[in-house]
Amino acid sequence: MKTKLTFLTFLLFGFLNIKAQCEPTITSPRLGAIFAEKILFCESEDEILSTTQTYSSYQWYKQEWTWQTPNNNPWEAIPGATSQQLTINGGDQLYYFKVQVTQGACMAESAAVMADGYVYGLPAMMSTFVPGTYEIVDGGVAHVCEGAPVKFDDIFPVVYGPHTWFKCIPTTVAPFTGDPCVIPNVTGDTYTTSEPGEYGFYACTEYCPNQCQMLDPFTFVKLEYGNWEFCGNLGTGEVKAKENKLSIYPNPTAQFLYIGKESEEYKEVTIIDMSGKLVLKKNDHQYRQAIDVSHLAAGNYIIVSKNGKGEVYRNKFIKK
């Protein structure tokens, strides 16, 4: 009986060992650095794929990425790719890779990994204004009330590391010491200002520190501060209350809210809570359309309505 148990144990461990050998796993230095099962490249670097175990034979395959699901592009054997390691480079972006291995009577394929080009995402900037304190007057130019803050964010903060922020368009493609356009001591992926200027940034990718990009100068945002017609008191950022405030009904309301000025369309309607947070925004709104506020917490709110003529109205309402 003891001999049989020993033999069965040997067979079991042998089976488990063969099973483990039949489950190849791909690894590489940058695999999973940001996204699981994806590799992010630097422009001038190669990347080495390898299996975590040794096998008798290897054949690497690649498949071109597509938006479509499922991916119907064919898997193609890579000529000469028959060793444990496979070197890929920037030209292999947006491809999937897998390896087929054999070990004795065992033959198996690894799960696929993707060589992603997301690290190459060109820098893009998002501008956040306080509702009612600004007006876009031309492409890239905004009139802003005195003292009202404007926040700029890198849309791809996960890609980029240190930033250099500018208050005017620099004359070079990279910052230099003494550049008057550079905002000193600001290196994060967000910047808030309440001063006039033309804002943008230069940044280097976090995982490829030598790979840097300048925001396209055409997408820099120019802020012009002043006591514009739509502004309130200096530095408050509040909208100037017009004497002919709109009729807002029902008020209080539990669900629907109507703007009561007939035959008028509103280019923009925003609702702000008492902390100044934007909680709802609608474009191209008509007075007869109901605004559903049922999802808002009970409390006091400000609704700012801007008509097609650029006139801005400010009202308060209560959400029950």
TrEMBL record:
Keyword DNA-binding: no
Keywords of this entry: Signal
Signal peptide start and end residues: 1-20
Gene3D superfamilies: 2.60.40.2700
Taxonomy, superkingdom: Bacteria
Annotated ranges, domain Secretion system C-terminal sorting: 248-318
Matches recorded under Pfam families: Por_Secre_tail
Matches recorded under NCBIfam families: Por_Secre_tail (TIGR04183)
Name of protein: T9SS C-terminal target domain-containing protein
Source species of the chain: Chryseobacterium pennae
